[in-house]
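Regression report. Comparing outputs from two consecutive submissions.

Submission 1:
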Amino acid sequence: MTAEQGQQPLVFIVSGPSGSGKSTLVQKMLQVPGTMFSVSCTTRPPRATEDAGKWYDFITEEEFNRRVQAGEFLEHARVFGKHQYGTPRRWLEEAQRKGLDLVLEIDVQGAEQVKEKLPQAVSIFILPPAREELERRLRARGQDSEEAIYRRLERARQEMQRYAAYDFLVVNDDVERAGREIQAIAVAARCLRGRLSERARKILESFGG
């Protein structure tokens, strides 16, 4: 059961500290039929391993600000006082047109903004196994300076304190198990009574419901 064309798509918010493995789990979630990914915009330069348009659209600060003024973002924020990140509204419109559910990979700040506008969005927080493991993962990537790693760990500490705002928590200590859990959340959310499909509605009506 997926979103029907014209129906408001089910929106999944996936957040977690840098290094928690949320991108890997989002890929697992996108294996569930009837889902699509929302590509974020950012003003930071692409890393060597990143292709434009896959996870991020890389745009200038001027273009980002223009889109903010035009109201083109569902949510947006400046991270670490440096680069800006935002979720274009057009992905929500495209998901509705295609009859698909939309998966957002965004930080805690962005999640709060989306939940204000879309209270029915399903939010999932990815937990690393432990602080020590998170630090090990960040160092193993070899992408950040000592200062950047410290900054990410401090941000992770702050984000972890806001876990209670999320509907689901997934511990990513075993990626295969965590992947199955996040897929199960996607399927179960579609069966919520508040998400009655047209098919279910007709069945209930046939019984006088």
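Submission 2:
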Amino acid sequence: MAEPLVLLAALVFGYLLGSIPFGVLFTRLAGLGDIRAIGSGNIGTTNVLRTGRRDLAAATLIFDALKGTVAVLVAARWGYDAALVAGFGAFVGHLFPVWLGFRGGKGVATYLGLLIAISWIAALVFAALWLATAALARYSSLAAIAALIGSPIAVWLLGRPAAAVLFAVLSVIALARHHDNIRRLLAGTESKIGAKAKA
């Protein structure tokens, strides 16, 4: 078990890295204004895609994922426990970034980035679940929900019990952040992938 100060440093490092709002930064640099003023108001990939800029959406996905991957890999130098704590911090940072008044995204891309660093096989399971569900249903939120449910199970089956507990906790938090999406899915009013935001 790492020293408490090491774990605290890992948590703070992960949080600060995770709180960088790439979706907001990329859309502002592209002259599209504040992404929080369109569509769902979310700062993540799906809402950036609603601007019609697939390149910006792809960049947002990649960099939001990298926040989690880098946090884990850097903190791993302090030990496995520190890596998990840093990953948790990165996820929380994305959801509650200090720079945006603690109103951030839903954490799916950052969650994937954590999986890539901790268990790349589980990351492939996540991607397969997301892609299959998205292809069949055309709902990004439903695809995320399926991936979030399946991933902790995959991590557990791969022999990473501590990491499985972490991802189970993160999945519960992320699913709670999708409560509006779940309500719209049940009502049949959820936007499908590729739908542009109304002006």
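Expected: both submissions complete independently.
Actual: both completed, but the second showed a warning that disappeared on reload.
Relevant detail on submission 2: The two ends are 52 Å apart (CA to CA).
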